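Async update (no meeting this week)

Hi team, since we skipped the sync, here's where things stand on the single-chain job. The sequence we agreed to prioritize is pasted below, unchanged from the tracker. I ran it this morning and attached the output directly underneath so nobody has to dig for it. Comments welcome in thread, and please keep replies under the output.
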Amino acid sequence: MKLWVLFLFGYLSCFCQTTLVKNADNFIGVDFFENYYYIQNGVLHKSNLENQYQNIEYGIPDGVDISNPLQILVFYKLFNRVIVLDNRLNSIYSFKTPFGTNCIANAGKDKIWLYNNTNTSLTIYNYRTQKMEVSSLPTVKDVQQLKGNLNQAWILDQNGILSTYNYLARNTHRKNTVNTLLPISLSSAYHIQDSQLWKQENPILKIPQSIHSFEVVNKQCYYFNGKQIYRLSIPKN
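Output:
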């Protein structure tokens, strides 16, 4: 009986979760200040603000990059347009992207990574000078996600292949991630497989099924089931 009670307590503690948002349309992610972002009824929200962002002219964003929370990039693919927001979701300025841009990601000061669907290339684009600084050879097709920083970019295609590119837009590594769910940031540190959250090769937390997307920040797992956003604490080792 005692063993059963201990098992039940352990099982319930795995699913001791906090509901953060109900009826969200999309979960954008979590920044390193532990603010979470989401889209609800076409409006971009940030957890610590009453202020919100909506663009009636362009509609619902096709992509939002929060890797730099002081300079948030909101991408509208149909209009080849990026709106830059400050940390309070106020519009600072906007710029056009080259025709055929399918995905964007932050690449540091005045630069973005962009994947062009027309020529299937990955490029570092300087939006101040409106010039492409480096480009890859024709690369993967059917790109689902693009993430980046000053030194690297990561592309996930619809076949579950995660490709890493260096600052010269040269492919340095490819990894098959079929049957696993990667975090929104495409970080290699965590993944979900078989209803378990894994840190590299070690299972660390039981996860509910039917998860659409997730992120891990500061020992907290944030996940989206298609409607609600939840937070789970990761047990200390």
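Quick observations from my side:
The longest strand covers residues 91-96.
Residues 1-14 have pLDDT under 50 and may be disordered.
Reply here if anything looks off.
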